[in-house]
Amino acid sequence: MSPTKKITxxxxxxxxxxxxxxxxxxxxxDMVKARDDSSRAADIIKNWIRTRSTIEFLGTWETIYNPDxxxxxxxxxxxxxGLPTFTMSVNSWVxxxxxxxxxxxxxxxxxxxxxxxxxxxxxxxxxxxxxxxLIKEYQRLKESENNxxxxxxxxxxxxxxxxxxxxxxxxxxxxxxxxxxxxxKERIIYATEADMLNLALFGYTxxxxxxxxxxxxxxxxxxxxxxxxxxxVLSNMESYNSEMIKNGIARDVRxxxxxxxxxEQLHSLDKNNAEYRxxxxxxNDNNNAIE
Length: 291
Known about the structure:
This is KilA-N domain-containing protein. By secondary structure, this protein is α+β, with helices and mostly antiparallel strands.
């Protein structure tokens, strides 16, 4: 099975084997690593696959999608599932039922893999919240695969690493030297300047957002949830603010300028449906643009 891509959930890389017709396989072993001790992955998967609800789900999936599935063997397992003496492994399930939805794979990307439908079900067994983050990252991967422009320009990563560096460099070179403060307090200056941009663009600080969204804040920050249009404007604001800092313009004046800039640019981008057009660019349009 190939090619293999990676998505990141809970700061853990999870392998995804891309197949034709959206029949992708996701590594269950990696999913366990994101939620538990990796040494227990095999036991956790084995405990999951032996439950009655899992056996019924797997059997139903195979009945729908696998014409060579051995239904008689499935019925036998379904009757025994839930009994204290019932044991099951991925290899046993595959060998005895001719299943295709879940497999064990050796080699560089070894582990237990399952069709995305089954992987999402396994994700729900691990944690409903984890399942949502897994689906979100999988969808992001598919969007980048289906849109070459998005693949070349992962907006949230690139925009956060370009003009933000200009912004922090301007603070370091032009604001920090004028203050006799410790390294710890320097961080407060950086955070204060970042929150000035947040207020000018979003209307609230990072702390305000975290308090209003406690569950989301466990995994994301406010800028992770921003739209593409907002990120474009934020990138422009960081660049412009760095120039105003270099020119010694007072903070209250900079805020007024940036707030007006945010409103004007967002209005223009939203009016022209810039985000929609970016997301809907087709492969053919992208090839023409390159030519």
